[in-house]
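Quiz preparation item.
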């Protein structure tokens, strides 16, 4: 007879909330050079994946090693993401201030597109976390296929991205990094539920990257 699973109480919930807040702050600190944003997110995503699989966070040495390996490819991803974000921000600002025609309907459509892109980007970060913070191109292709096969999961991820963006605009700037940690955890939960309901084909699983240094 197997041992009963220990019941979680409020202290476990508080501890997990604090861990996610610290994770978001760590991502913000690692992203200060700007182009290290994607490597920081990839490392945090890998840590969350480890947490979901093993029940514990990876050692700091492991996360630092992952971050270092993620920097070369991650800087290019950061540059692309920042360029897209800047263009979308300019577009939203122009619509909101009436500088371009379209009014409310165009602004609503653009907001939906932004949320969809945020959801897609978030799911790519989750997929990268499953491969220890590497493999952006492969993750982008796999997530694109998954979004077309399971639009419900994409819609849920888009909702998380849109809500996080809205809250980021409303809360004090100091709290924005904390929202990032919670949003990434929520994206992992959405992706895990989708994968449990509809497992990916055998050829869609990430390629093993070999043993990892402790």
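Solution:
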């Amino acid at each position: 007879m197997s041992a009963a699973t220990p019941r979680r109480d409020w202290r476990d919930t508080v501890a997990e909330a604090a861990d996610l807040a610290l994770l978001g702050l760590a991502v913000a600190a690692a992203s200060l050079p700007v182009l290290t944003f994607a490597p920081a997110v990839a490392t945090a995503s890998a840590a969350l994946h480890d947490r979901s699989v093993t029940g514990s966070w990876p050692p700091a040495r492991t996360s630092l090693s992952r971050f270092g390996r993620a920097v070369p490819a991650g800087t290019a991803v950061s540059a692309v993401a920042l360029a897209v974000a800047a263009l979308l921000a300019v577009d939203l600002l122009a619509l909101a201030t009436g500088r371009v025609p379209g009014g409310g309907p165009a602004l609503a459509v653009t907001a939906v597109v932004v949320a969809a892109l945020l959801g897609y980007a978030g799911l790519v970060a989750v997929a990268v976390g499953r491969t220890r913070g590497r493999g952006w191109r492969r993750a982008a292709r796999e997530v694109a296929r998954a979004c077309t096969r399971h639009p419900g999961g994409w819609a849920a991820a888009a909702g998380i991205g849109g809500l996080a963006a809205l809250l980021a605009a409303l809360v004090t700037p100091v709290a924005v990094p904390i929202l990032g940690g919670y949003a990434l955890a929520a994206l992992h939960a959405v992706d895990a539920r989708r994968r449990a309901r509809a497992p990916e084909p055998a050829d869609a699983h990430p390629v093993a990257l070999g043993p990892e240094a402790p």
